[in-house]
Amino acid sequence: MKFTATQIAGILEGEVEGNPQTAVHKLSKIEEGEKGSLTFLANPKYTPYIYSTKASITIVNKDFVPEQKLSTTLIKVDDAYKSFSKLLEYYNQVKNNKVGIENPSYISETAEYGEGFYLGAFSYLGDNVKIGKNVKVYPNVYIGDNVSIGDNVMVFAGAKIYSESIIGDNCVIHSGAIIGADGFGFTPDENGEYSKVPQTGNVILEDNVDVGAGTTIDRATLGSTILRKGVKLDNQIQIAHNVEIGEHTAIAAQTGIAGSTKIGKNCLIGGQVGIVGHITIGDRVKVQAQSGIGRNVKDDEVLQGSPAINYGDFNKSYVHFKNLPKIINRINDLEKRSDSDTDKQ
C-alpha cells in the first residue's frame, strides 16, 4: 500500500516541502529511515537525524527550519507527534477494512450481522448472535450463543467470546482473549471433594473497551461481570467473576483481580498487581507494579508494596529497609560493647 506526500498532507492537513509525488509504503524511526519509508520528528533531541535519514518523507512541526540540506521530503503540520499518531490510526483503519465471509466458517441461521461485516476463516457464530455495523472478526474466533456485539468492534484471531456476553461499540478484543469463561466457583464437602457452583451470569463490556491478548474475563456467578466504558486492559490479565471496573480505568499486564471486587473510575493499576476479592477500590486510585491490595481503598490513594501501603510511607520505609544490614551491625556492636562493659564491672 503506497501513499504520496500529497495524499499524506491531505490526510493531515499539512504542507509539502519537497517533491509532492514522493511515495512511501512503510514506517520507520527517523534514525533507521530507509528509502520508501515515512518517519517523523517531534523531539528536538532527534533533530540531527533528519539530516542523515534515508526516509523518503518526514513529518515535522511547522516551525522547523532546516540548517542543512535535506534529502527527505517534509510535511509540515501543527503537531508532528499527534499527526503521526493520526496517520497510524488511519493506516490501521485502511489495513483492517476487510469485508466479507471467508470459508470455511460457521454462521448459525439465527445469527445477524450488519453492513461492513468481516468474518475470517474457521470462525464460529452461534445461535441468536447479534452483530452491528463494521465489525471485523478475524480467523479462528468463537462467538457463542446469544452474544451481542455493537458497531465498529475488532475481534482478533483466536479470541473466544462465550454465550450471553454483551460487547459495546468500538471495542477491541485481541488474540487469545477469553470473554465469559466460568468463574472459579467450587464448594468443598465433608470429604474434601469439590462441587462446581454453576456460573449463570455473563460479561458486559461497555463502549470503547480494549482487552489485551491472552486476557481472561470470567462470567458472573449471578448477574454480570462489568467493564465500564473506556476501560483499557493490557495483555494476560485475569478478571474474576462479578468484578466491576469503573470508567476509563487502565490496568497493566499480569494483574489479577479476585471475585466481586469493585474498582472505581480513572484508576491506574500497574503490572503484576494482585487484588483480593470482595473489596472496593475508589476513584482515581494509583497502584504501583507488583503491589498486593488486601483492603478497601479510598479515592485518590497511591499505593505500593505487598501488602500495599501509602506510596510515600513505602518509600520512607524502603530507605530503612535498604539500611537494615547496617542497622543490625550497629545494634550488634552496641550489644558487644554493653556486654564487654558489664564483664569489666
UniProtKB/TrEMBL annotation:
The active site is at H241 (proton acceptor). GO terms for biological process: lipid A biosynthetic process. The keyword Metal-binding does not apply. Catalyzes the N-acylation of UDP-3-O-acylglucosamine using 3-hydroxyacyl-ACP as the acyl donor. Is involved in the biosynthesis of lipid A, a phosphorylated glycolipid that anchors the lipopolysaccharide to the outer membrane of the cell. This is UDP-3-O-acylglucosamine N-acyltransferase. One of its GO terms (cellular component) is membrane. SUPFAM superfamilies: Trimeric LpxA-like enzymes. It comes from the Bacteria. It comes from Flagellimonas lutaonensis.
